[in-house]
Fold:
Amino acid sequence: KHIIYERRSNDIMNDRMHISLWQVEVKSGQHRPLIAEHASVRSPILSPDGSKLAYLSDRSGSQQLYVRYLDSGEDALLTNTSYAPGNVVW
Structure:
């Protein structure tokens, strides 16, 4: 079993907060980055079956909705709009 959590840091050079997603293995206590990029990641939510993670990221320059397939580590961009999506729900 794993726990996914947000890790926050401040980028003082660009005056912005950086948020990445990390995963901790409950049994071993080992932490590893799940989604650690130079963009901020917000509103992570696991799919009901636990195989996917939906999240918002501004990696493309504006906030968009992505899905991470946890078995492969691949991401899929689900939106490409000029308005930021909100309230991520499965």
Notes: The chain has one domain: 2-77. The radius of gyration is 13 Å.
